[in-house]
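Q: For a teaching session next week I want to show students how multiple molecules come together into a single three-dimensional assembly. I've collected the sequence lines for a complex. Could you give me the predicted structure tokens for the whole thing so I can convert them for display?
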Amino acid sequence: MKNNLMRGLFATSLFVLAFSLVGNLSTNAYRQDVNRFLGTSNYKITIDGEVSGGDIDSLYPYKSDYSSTKELVQAFADVGERMGEEGTVLLKNENNCLPLDANHKKVTLLGTIAYNPYQGGQMGSGYQKNVGTDADTVSFVNALKERGFEVNKDVQTVFKGGNQHAAPAASLQAQFQNKELSVSELDSRSANWKDSFANYNTAIVVFGRNGGENASYLPGLDGVSEADKALHQSDPLGLNDNERDILKVATDAKKAGKFDKVIVILNTSSTMEIKEIKENEDVDAMMMVGVPGGYGFRGVVDVMMGADNLSPSGHLTDTFVTKNSLSPAAQNYSLYKFTNYDEINAQGSEYAGKLINSYLVEAEGIYTGYYYYETRYEDAVRNRNNADSVKGSVSGAWKYENEVVYPFGYGLSYTTFEQKLDSVEVDLAAKKVRASITVKNTGSYSGKSVAELYVHAPYIDGGLEKASIRLIDFGKTKLLAPNESEVVNLEADLQDVATWDSSCDNGDGTKGSYVLDAGKYYFALGNGAHEALNNVLVADGVDSSLLTGSFTPNCVQSYVVDAKDTTSLRESFSGTKLENQLEDADLNYYQPGTVTELSRSNWDLTFPKTYDNIAADAEMLKVLKGDITDISVDDGWPEVKWDQKNGLTLLDLKDVPFEDPRWGQLIEQLSFDEALKLVAFGGVVTQAVDSIGSPQLLQNDGPNGINNNALGHNVDAFSTMHDIDPYYFDSSDKNFLYKGGCMALGVTIAQTFNKELSYEQGKIYGNYAIWAHVPIHWSCGLNTHRSPYNARNHEYYSEDGVLGGYLGANMIRGGREKGFIISPKHYAFNDTELNRSGVAPFMSEQKARQIELRSFQIAIEKGEALGIMTSMSRIGATPINAHEGVMYNVLRKEWGFHGLNSTDAASNKYYFSAKECAINCVTMTTQNKVDYSNGWEYFHPENLSKAKKLQARLQEGMKCQYYAAVHSNAINGYSKNMKVEKIMTWYDMAFIGIDIGAGLAALAAGFFFVKGVLAKKEG
Amino acid sequence: MKKLLASLNVQTCLLLSTFVFTLVALVSYIINISTEYFQAYAPSGAYFAFLILSLVFAAGFIVLKILKENKIFKIAENVILAVLPGLLMAAVMFLFLDRIYYVLVIFTYEKNETNMAALMPALVSFAAAALASIIALASSFMKDKEIGQVKE
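A: Of course. Below is the structure for the complete assembly, covering every listed component.
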């Protein structure tokens, strides 16, 4: 044989061997991810002895309500459809436009988004279509067709090939590119496309903006592309001329008699600037649908039709304003690098590579969303505190009617309701406010009504900052027939009536508590925050002619606090005494006198300036570095026991309360090294732990359902015993490849204002999880919308923490019923995706507690969440996972959280400091690669022997993690007499096969090659 | 130079290309590890080792070609041709092992202009090393046939 061929074959076999050997190293390093991706596992469960029928029942304590995947996915779709129905907000309905009668089912859809609607977001909440399953997803066009509408095909054809607008990537100076097609482009595609209008009598125009992970809009012209500036787009959330022209095509056709009705649909999570649409008399109706997922458009269409006498019942989760860029929060919404960024990150600097990049000064204080607009409105009506200053005004003196287009909580119906606030009881001992509301349907359609209960607390000039009106609870009626009534009983937390006072002297050497100022508190109902405030103002004797907008009678009750109350709310529900925990979140803590927070005592003087010239000083840098705990000195904490032989397994503690000492004994069975690994490499799949008999815990992402993988993806690997598992199914099942990332996103969910529906959502997710064999879900986005420019808002519920908190709590409870750990995220302060890893948001403790943390608090206290995911930002200068106040004192002590707390993906091991995570009971760092280098070298038992606080907290975190695990569907299929075996996956065997094959080939080819070379030499 | 030109054949050209691409891979990686983002992380010693070894082998082959033919040199050339693709493939896989995590992290969580600029040399390095390994593999099958002669 020719020598060059032998040489080539020898080289090829070495080449393959190198690929296989090093490739095998790679798969070992990323084994968790590879297994997750392939649906494989390195563990096999076997049970000693026979398993009887009765055993099977107890082996699977978490049971699905559905007996087949078909029933399951159809129930999933049903909840998705109802989210669309109840999450649709009717903003405008003139000329009896809606509901559409049988004569108006011939529709022309206009706008690129009508044919490419937003049904999910970008990246982690990406929309997953389902085709060929028992519950296929539907687009807007198909939802219309399913309901018997005839859609104008000629117009559909001219819009073919149009694209969604993408939310801009969160990089410096990223600008929005509006993809709406121009009318001239449409004309060039078909000169006569408008002729087809004559055969259709209803125009539906759809506008939208996308949401995305790692994406962000920038306020005003900074966020608009040059092409769009030329088309008179002044803000990424405003319209450009192409969009205006599309709307004009519809309204011109209406004027020409071709259309009877023009309807606008807003398919967005960020509040768009739509005043011009509201004021356009030729637009008959407008609806805000949010991002309704793969089934929600069915609900949207049902609402448009008034199907089954259905009225819209959604309400706005955010305030729609004339110009988003004029809000106080928008004054500090961009990417602000520390002025000494280059010095900090210079080569060789001790701070380089630690994600010390940018900051955000949240100088608006508590005045975000309606807290700002409604409070300034009250002060403007009362003509005080320079509320009519030009600062923040569209033009001239600030006037509410010029600034706000649709207020928070607003929503119309086809019917009318009368709401009466019958009684309000303030229970200081129980820290509760109870209200009773009678709701009556006074119109001619059936419908559901939302009772929104607000409070107006007394403002003392120059005293604590207080929003004029705050939502404290809400409830939705059942479907009420005309003339039918229902009494809605609400129970709000007194904390939402009170105010955080950082200067409150607690008398024990600490400061900071919730307080009730002396004065008259009004409790009010209203169709939105604005109407509720008007109701209060009228009750308070303000001349109604000074008011903007409507007010209604019988909607106000009052309660008087005689003297400032600093004691009733001194303790949390868990019994922990409150005190300041976030003083270092304020930039003034490091650089006194730098920030002036917006105060209603003087709207003009305190309106936020842009803080774009902040340097990280020496004190700040010590904290920004994230290396907070010294592990080299004995911290004096008691010794911690590891490797104990207490004879317990996780399943022994299934029904054991958290406080029982056996939990501590179980965790002491872990080795120190095992516990460290569970913290550092606990992500995507928490490995099985033999010493405590814990199964693997599969984690799943998905703010829009149960994302990542198909329903059947993990069944083979995670179903312990295929032959007896009632939830085992194979690839022959029609729904094996069904994908759960097809549900409505945060804003649509929140627009339902329906706690029960949110509970149902959690429960159907829990059912799905039982079949999918997934116990942990990183979902339920509870960050408060600080600004509509954060494109991550689509995963989060609202500008109001109470609304998000209660809906999230109900979703979490629904999941828990089925053993599904729905874990809210991103705890906390993820107010921007611009440099989301490392950004340092600064704010006052009052803002942090009342605005940013409130929804998480409700989810933990009311939803009894057993999981939570941290954000990637800092709080102040401190990396969030290293902040003991937020991660331990507030979350675990004040709120009584007993679950697992995970970081988001740990991208940088200096920034995501493992020792700080361990100290703060952040137990599951989603670090994928098992590798201690580049920052975690110290994270071994021998280096941490003196760090006894770390060890104690490590055990506390583990206790919480496994307390959560035993209350999850992860224990389905597990018994005490099971054995966990380590096995090889098919790819392990493939690598071995390739290694052997390539090795043998190398030997053979090498032999002939060497023989040939030597023969040549001798020759 | 004359000797170099005289020694030119397809195989030598391919090995020269391998050398150049390997050098590009090495320089790109050095640029990558010097960026603000990556300087916090230890570089991959294995990648360095395999790249440098590959460079030495590729350069050695060219030098041997320039020098007068002798049987020992011929054996050495054969060994280089047989071993070089494997060395380069090992380098490629070590870089993959070293950087895949950061590729995913930057694309998923930390995508901004600075980080992308830091990552780009790593991607260039990967592409260059992969190309070098393929070229080296192709050259291992080639006959030692000269493509040109320069008269003395």
